Amino acid sequence: MSHANPPQPLAEFVREWLDALLEHAPAADAATRTEVSQVLTGLTSGLGAVLLAPTLCPTEARELGAGLAGTRLRNADVLPASMRMIRHWVPQVFGLTGTDHALRLVEVLDELAAGYGEALSERSRTEHEELLRAMLDAESHVELGESEARFRTIFTEAAVGIGLARMDGKVLDINPAMLKMFGLTERLPDTGRVTDYVHPDDMPKFGELYGELVGGQRDTIRMEIRFLRMDRTVLWAYLTASLVRTADGSPSHLVAVIEDLTERVRLRTRLEHQTYHDQLTRLPNRSATEERLRWMFSDTSPVSRVGLCALNLDGFRAINDSLGHGVGDRLLLAVASRLQMAASGGHLITRTGGDEFAVLIQDPGHVEELTDLAERVLDSLQRPVVVGAHELTVSACIGIAVADVESSRPAELTRSAEVALSRAKAEGRGRRCLFDPERDAGVAHRFALMARMPSAVSHDEFRLLYQPLVSLADGRLAGVEALVRWQHPQWGMLAPSRFIELAERSGTIVALGRWVLAQACMQGKQWAVEFGDRAPYVSVNVATQQLAEPSLVTDVVQVLRDTGLEPHRLQLEITERAVIDEESGALDALGALKQLGIRLAIDDFGTGYSSLSYLSRFPWDALKIDGSFIEGLRTVETFDPRADKIVEALISMAHALGLEVTAEWVETKAQSERLAALGCETGQGRLFGDAVLAAEVEALLRG
Question: Are residues 629 and 646 in contact, defined by beta-carbon separation less than 8 angstroms?
Fold first, then answer.
């Protein structure tokens, strides 16, 4: 594939990247430069695709690393230089901003480095095998007296280390590359033996494999191993050693090929450190917390009890927004330093989020140890922090929890600490609370639901029921409102009141709303195919956060395209509150949806804070009167004239604006008859049926 003439600024980045790589390979010829430039152009395009994709594909990111390893450049600086260039340039090249993109870039770099290392290792193993075959072939020719020069050429000019040894381990000869690896100048000491240079910690494993090799049980051994150079520094290497046999098959001597992995291992160590450490404070991060918790609760851990203090700074966002991220970062550094002093003693102190920290305590003796630690932390934060010209006062709330390893799990401990933190924050600034299973049971239950909700959406734990919307003039089923329920594996069928607010708080409401829309439209299409004009329209609720999503219109269009539902068979219900909260974006979004032919209804009208201007400014098709007004029409005996006047006025106003009216909570015949007399088109409530499965809607249509 040709990558000639890439667009700016991509081309500029490729040139900078190429120069950075060739800085360590000054002897590269024009052909190499051209080849590497083409590879880097392709990799840059691939980076853009991976970074801008809706979800990360680790395989694609690893393939980019493998592509980088496939260049002609072999020096140890290729990967570190590439990582620096990508980290600095790529966000500018592709216009990436924000925390989400920064996290995606870190994930992509991790996968790219892993792919590079895997490809390089595979290439090294292949080259080792080819070199060994050449060496062994040359040795056989030497024994036959045919070509010692061929053997010497391979031995001397190889870029990897090659060594020859007797069967008793005495080193006979090593090539210049191996001399350089071990820090030797001209030759190996006469007394040198293979085992003299193996790192003591790797000696048991090497000794076992080496014994099998010289004993004839193996012809070749391969392993990553540490050697000690002459200055006693560590040489990380990939070793391939083979047994050389004479013409009659008896063991003669050993040939070893060694590739220096030291720089690669150092880079891998740095990447692992970045994976488990916060880049600002250098404290362990959330991943490190989770990893330590997994170990503490594992069968091999000696830990019997674990304490956790979850800390959240009070008012940090206001400081960050008003004084800038630079001041905020320096404040976080000061907080991290004070935490390390206040919670010293071998505890794991981590930064788990923007203004969130945690302290893990192994085998606390008693609960007071945790509360005393929390008090020390809070006290340490009381002193003002001076950042430039600003003297800042910061406080925090702390949630404390403790768990026995045998009877609990990491997720339960974390959730308990978060529940306690939530209660501490509710009590005010600078508070600490200890998790109380009885007192916090309700909060803990809600946290458990919130934590499970994202996976519940992806695992299809939600169900849709449909409540009839009936024509008051002729009793015809005009439409159905899609109402979501959660079929929880532990707590059974949950009503919306149990989880919708939690979905909004956690942000899952957007994904859940998309799922509801897709399922309802798919069902609506099935009814349209089977029942034609008698099929009801489907009415779907749109949450405030959904209305704020820039992708709302495209999401709806895509669902209609995927399901084949005609736009006029879909009604979207939006509350007054949602319109007020998202007024600036809502008008454009609702206008675009209206142009598609989708019905729009303002829901729960009369309970919010809207003015009449919202009815005239937005492109509504229908108005749904909140059931609290309909209650006053329930029976002749309980008839409320004031409620009746309000309902009459709402219906008249809606009709004057060209809107249809649906009344909610219709439970009696008296309500239905009065609403019909007032001109209300549609009723919804128990009188016409509760929310039911799709099959029961079909039974109504067939009846």
Answer: yes
